[in-house]
Amino acid sequence: MLKRISAIALITLLSASLVACSNSTSSSNGSSTASSQVSAQTSSKASTEASNTSSDSSSVFTDRDLTQTADTSNAKKLTLSDGKDVTITEAGVYIISGTAKDVSIIVDAADDAKVQLVLENANITNADSPCIYVKNADKVFVTTASGSENTLTVSGSFTADGDTNTDAVIFSKDDIVLNGEGKLNISSTDNGISGKDDIKITGGTIIISCTADAIEANDSISVADGNITINTQKDGLHAENDEDNTQGSIYISGGTFDITAGSDGIQATTTLVIDSGTFNISSAEGIEATNITINDGNITISASDDGINAASKSTAESVCITINGGNIKITMGQGDTDGIDSNGDLYITGGTVDITGQSTCDYDGKAEKTGGTLIINGQETDTIPNQMMGGRGGMGGPGGDMGGGPGGDMDGFRM
Length: 415
Description:
With 415 residues, the protein is mainly beta. The termini are far apart.
């Protein structure tokens, strides 16, 4: 029941992004004034009701989520040893320290149990299994102690646990929260952190190097704060449920992100809402979801594909990009790439958007700019261009956007 209530609260918050896609009236003062409420009968379907409330992160994060230190007055202290798994079966706070090989911290507690793992200079190197494995609990907190540096490494191919494909250094079947005042280094031959329910990050310094998704969740990823550095061959943040495309949302209200990704920097299936934060993203595609809302933040994207892309990944959301505020700078690679690409609508009501590239904006639906500053290749404009690289004859053919043939638009704007 507690998880159901939490999920409903998160859906209500994230669905606030949908109103601009179904209502063309927008504020021009750069503030986040467009929001909505989902009806009780639906999940996050785009049946919304407009209101003038801004996002409220208190509906996503609990007080304990946001508390960066643990109450250790009754904590149990556990010291790691080579080859000896640590199994936790009861709720409580556990201080974990030491250096060991081939060890898993396994949480297998009651459905209502809240377990807090306080990492105090804990270092684990495994060949084929997660360093932290949450089999069952209501919620697990992984808290880095102040001044501590913790390192979790899986160096070989992961081995399944029965029918469970445990493919991450931190692997959780239930809700998991990462916070604290210390540092957590994660190195993986597959995923870094994987949660089959919700993942929340509210503090600490997290450094992830991996070959697959750095942080992935089935239901949602929510970030309130923290310093997060990611180097991955796949996605930085990835929220997707293979069995339910109405799940898989990302909400960010703060934090600092330095993401180098071979694929997407941040990808959600349903909604992606950014209320604040500092982002430096270098990837094939910067930010992708079905419905994207940016209310504030400092976002720098260098992409070889699309910078910000709204694509139809979920049947529960309308395809739309809404920019209400923030400072966004996008630099695109050469070729058939778009700075902002919406397969639906595009709205700019505030903030500063600075795009450099051959194809800066591309949208299939409606586009409106009612506020903010839009800079296209160094020139400010009040009109959102619609460009289609490679379309209608391509770059050099008749009617091509950049072509010099009959009907070609030398400025790259689709007319």
